[in-house]
Amino acid sequence: MRISTPLCLAVLAAAALTALSQTPPAQKTPAAPKAAASKPKWTAPKVAQAPPMGWNSWNFFAERVTDKDIRAAADQLVSTGMKDAGYIYVNIDDTWEAERDSTGRLHTNSKFPDMKALADYVHSKGLKIGIYSGPGPKTCGGYAGSLGHEAQDAQMYASWGIDYLKYDLCSFIPEVMEKQEPNDKAAQMRLMVAAYDKMSKALKATGRPIVFSLCQYGWDSPWEWAPALGGNLWRTTDDINPTWDRIYAILSQQEGLEKYAGPGHWNDPDMLEVGNGKLTLAENRSHFSMWAMLAAPLLAGNDLPNMNPEIKAILTNKDVIAIDQDKMGRQASRVYSDGEVEVWARHLEGGAMAIAVLNAGSDRYSTHPFHLSLIKFGLHGPQEGKDLWTGKPIALTENMPIELASHDILLVRIAAPK
Ligand code: GLA
User: Fold this and answer.
1) Catalytic (active site) residue 239
2) Is position 168 annotated as part of the catalytic site?
3) Percent of the chain's residues with pLDDT above 70
4) SS3 state of residue 28
5) Is 48 touching ligand 1 by the criterion CB < 6 Å?
6) In this predicted structure, what is the pLDDT of residue 17?
7) The pLDDT value given to residue 36
8) Backbone torsions φ then ψ of 187, nearest 5 degrees
9) Which of 65, 82, 107, 167 has a beta carbon 3.0–4.6 Å from 57's, enabling a disulfide?
10) Is the pLDDT of residue 1 over 90?
11) Could you tell me the distance, in angstroms and rounded to a whole number, from the CA of residue 58 to the centre of ligand 1?
């Protein structure tokens, strides 16, 4: 018999009510022991519900990093106010590793005499600590990788109190993928996915909540498979460096990936270069603004003890950080571009919206003024917002001219579009 939907629901509801009001039948079999029946299954707290924020040693120190630098970075995160602004992870990148002993246990090299003591120090500052390895026999820097020792390494990280692992593909490519499957790209990719899955399971088995960061340069669309194996973030491109051209090239490669980002799983356009190299202040501002628009992990990579006030002001701009950390976790998309001026937007919690207008060109647009089209965002009429770099109110109107210096940005938050 076919029952119409409302009737069907009514029948089910009535049956449920009847079942609830009936006295349960006398038990014929002994009840299961209470403890076993009621013991809640332990699940690790969720990590990376917002894009991870912190600092990583690689972009400034590379292979020179030492225990002392990590402690200094932790101290600086606290004293500069970066910790209060949300920078929580202090991540040691490559070059901490020595050799394995006869039991397979990996030792730290002389730059890191006591990893547990270092982790305790970082934790004592109210911060978290991250480490680096890879699925191959060697890391990118040629140090010992985790191949064949995944569970052992994961247990060791947990025993130190590690909170974050960046897992970098590197030598797994020539030593495993290309050796085992020389002529089959699809099979090579399957090996890569399995290697990440293995470490993910090893981390889970420790019972410690550890952020799992996949670093395999965006090969074979990690955004499609990394979330299912428990990846919290995945690199989308090859390495960043502190030049505008590289930063802009990476930004351009993020278009189309917005649907893969969300709480617990983020696209990673690589760590920040704010304050590094010869980037101008405008370039530093634009880089930081766009990473926030992308809901990217904000892992500073600069020389914290020698950070100048302008760079500190950029990295601790709370309004811009709030865009990055917005609860909805919606990555921005490029709405349109006009010449070399690009307009990106993202939706924020409570109906708010962030709009970024970026002059990616090398000229000032006085000779070729750019006009903002609000209609292209579905916005009608003037919009009241806040300019997140001046901190002042700004009114956006249809077709308003906007002049930006080369590589500079206008970043506006509109409370709730009209
Ligand atoms: C790769 C990664 C970098 C860094 C180095 C370390 O190049 O992409 O971010 O971790 O390895 O060797």
Assistant:
1) yes
2) yes
3) 88
4) coil
5) no
6) 30
7) 43
8) -65, -35
9) 65
10) no
11) 7
Nearest CA to ligand 1 atom 5: 140
CA 97 centroid distance within chain: 24
Q: Please, is 8 exposed, middle or buried when counting C-beta atoms within 10 Å of its C-beta (0-12, 13-18, 19+)? A: exposed
Residue to mutate (ligand 1; options 131, 139, 219, 239; most atoms within 8 A of CB): 239
Does ligand 1 lie within 6 Å of residue 65's CB atom? no
Residue 94 Cβ inside 6 Å of ligand 1? The answer reads yes
The answer to whether residue 168 scores a pLDDT higher than 90 is: yes
HSE-up of 122 (CA within 13 Å, CB side)? Answer: 32
Q: Is the pLDDT reported for residue 178 higher than 60?
A: yes
User: Is the Cβ atom of 97 under 6 angstroms away from ligand 1?
Assistant: no
Structure confidence at residue 288 (pLDDT) = 99
Judged against a pLDDT cut of 60, whether residue 4 lies above it is answered with: no
Give 278 Cα–ligand 1 centroid separation in angstroms: 21
Q: Mean of the per-residue pLDDT values for the chain?
A: 90
Mean pLDDT of 189-205: 98
Q: Which two tokens stand for residue 145?
A: 């990788």
CA of 60 to the centre of ligand 1 (A): 12
Q: Is 296 in the pocket of ligand 1 (CB under 6 A)?
A: no
Pairing label, strands 298-300, 333-338: unpaired
How remote is the CA of residue 287 from the centroid of ligand 1, in Å? 20
Catalytic residue, chosen from 239, 303, 338, 387, is 239
Stronger pLDDT, 37 or 234, i.e. the higher one? 234
CA of 96 to the centre of ligand 1 (A): 13
Please answer whether residues 249 and 239 qualify as being in contact, where contact means their C-beta atoms are separated by less than 8 angstroms. no
Helices 185-206, 150-160: axis angle to 10 degrees equals: 40
CB contact at 8 A, 140 and 168: yes
Is residue 67 within 6 Å of ligand 1 at its C-beta? Answer: no
Determine if ligand 1 sits within 6 Å of the CB of residue 240.
no
- Distance between CA atoms of residues 37 and 362, nearest Å: 67
Alpha-carbon torsion (416, 46, 162, 170), positive or negative: negative
Report CA-CA distances (Å) from 337 to 56, 252, 344.
Answer: 33, 12, 9
Which tens digit of pLDDT belongs to each residue from 104-151?
Answer: 999 999 999 999 999 999 999 999 999 999 999 999 999 999 999 999
The closest of 267, 18, 44, 244 to 163, measured between CA atoms, is 44
Helix (H, G, I), strand (E, B) or coil at 393: strand
